[in-house]
Amino acid sequence: MIRDITIGQYYPADSRIHKLDPRVKIVCTLLYLISLFTFKSILGYVLATVFLFGCIKLSKVPFKFIVRGLKPIVILLLITVGFNLFLTPGGETLVHVGFIKITEYGLSTAVYMAIRLIYLIMGSSLMTLTTTPNSLTDGLEKLLNPLNKLHVPVHEISMMMSIALRFIPILLEETDKIMKAQIARGADMESGNLIQKAKAMIPILVPLFVSAFRRANDLAMAMEARCYRGGDGRTKMKPLIYKSTDHVAYLITILYVVAAFVVGRYVPFKLWIF
Amino acid sequence: MSIKLEHINYVYSEGTAYEKHALKDVSLEIPHGEFVGIIGHTGSGKSTLIQHLNGLIKATSGALYYNGENIYGENYNLRELRNQVGLVFQYPEHQLFEVNVLQDVCFGPKNQGLSPEECEKRAREALQLVGLKEKYYDHSPFDLSGGQKRRAAIAGVLAMRPKVLVLDEPTAGLDPKGRDEILDQIAYLHEKADMTVILVSHSMEDIAKYVDRIIVMNKGSVMFNDVPKKVFAHYKELESVGLAAPQVTYIMHALKEKGMDVPTDATTIEEAADGIMKALKKERAAK
């Protein structure tokens, strides 16, 4: 059900990737995502595959967890592939039945687009699977710190993000509990038309909102009781400091990006590519 | 109206990093009309267990029979089962949602497809049973006090007239007075409405007074399943799993050790007082 969404679901394990500084993981994931869209030859894809699967192997996260993140984008993937496959002109025509026409370019664009999208999700899933939401927002806060000079409330934004992330599992659990309680009182959520189904949600949504507000109120109170007053002058118990492994990780990623860029663009290894 | 569990196993989040074997080979039988207490430490599987009783959770393996019918059978009507087995969750007041108390209590009967008049009749009856005053019926459930909310929520399940009433820690977070009132009312219901009652708690004191039988859960398995006196005789073992026998058990054992001839199987304060009085009289007579 709702549990299938991998983003924001931490997989606890003891690996080199898990131990990296969150900033490294954010920056390297971003670089990796950008690199996916630079190459124009198949060698680039080979490199990206090696890099991605190497990281997955290092992270000790079971492969099926990373694939699980793909489920929500299956439809998007199908639409993209379909559009590219049928609507890209150019090259030799491979299939021509009625109004359906698949060209050589169409086929290669569709395949590469699919690979890119899949790697995109897998790459970002790997980051969220190996980083707790809290350290992720910590890393973001530190990375965006320069924006403070432009009067962007970086700390407040990251605090809101980490609270929102923290609340996701709590509210999921709460929803589950309320749903069960109402089903136990005979609520029927499956049958009926759309309006009846929407109405059947009321006994769940009302208590859920009430509990969300109550929790938010309690949390605000608890924060105030501990003298929280925003980011000014606030220090960290565990400040983020780069270690040597973090520098190595940066180096490897940069090497990969340069290699992918150069190989993908300038090495003339053509195999039905646009 | 018996409930019979046969070798029930339940595993949470099977095949993930968070996999947890919550119930291990649980076999139980709860005959009609019994008042059963389920006791266990936090995480012992008691809440998971009771959610099996009305089919909210399907066992990973094993079978559950209600009145001899397997509820995991293909054509079994789970909704009908839920009409018969009323389940009051922990903190049931968190499920209140209607504009006023009466309508909230009507939610259950309405789902059973009863006429509005019949719904209201049953709702009023249920509210009376839990002892909520009539002046609150048209209040918003969110304006009630904690104890009143709890009563309204329990009434919401009672209004469905279940044959079996399962309550998950109905007294959690209530003051001693509210706790006693609710437990007394449950005991009253058990007697008057001929209901099977299954009461989950982690406090021996709470249930020792009321139940016919205690089921002690530990790490997903049934540890003891016997009448209170016999279960409390194992008070040392209970302690080792983070539970405790009622305080009177300790007092009686301590008195016995000091050489006083008292029954060590007393479970309630009244019984204990009785036993001590008798022992004192005997001692005096001997002198």
Summarize the structure in words:
- The complex is a heterodimer of chains A (274) and B (287).
- Chain A is built from eleven helices and two strands; from the N terminus they run αααααββαααααα.
- Chain A has 274 residues and is mainly alpha-helical.
- Chain A has one domain.
- Chain A has a two-stranded antiparallel sheet with strand order 1-2.
- In chain A, helix 5 (74-87) packs antiparallel against helix 6.
- Mean pLDDT of chain A is 84; it is low at 1-7.
- Chain B has eleven helices and ten strands.
- By secondary structure, chain B is an alpha/beta fold.
- Chain A binds chain B through residues 11-13, 65, 174, 177-178, 180-188, 202-203, 206-207, 210-211, and chain B through 16-17, 51, 54, 56, 79, 82-83, 86-87, 89, 92, 94-97, 107-108, 111-112, 142, 156-157, 160.
Largest sheet features of chain B: 6 strands, mixed
State the end-to-end CA separation of chain B.
Answer: 55 Å
Contiguous uncertain segments of 5+ residues of chain B: none
Number of strands of chain B: 10
The overall pLDDT of chain A, averaged over residues, is 84
Largest beta sheet: strand ordering of chain A: 1-2
Tertiary shape of chain B: globular
As an assembly, this protein is heterodimer
What radius of gyration of chain A results from the CA coordinates? Answer: 24 Å
Number of helices of chain B: 11
Find the structural class of chain B using helix and strand composition.
alpha/beta
How would you write the strand order of the largest sheet of chain B? 6-7-8-3-9-10
What is the number of beta strands of chain A?
Answer: 2
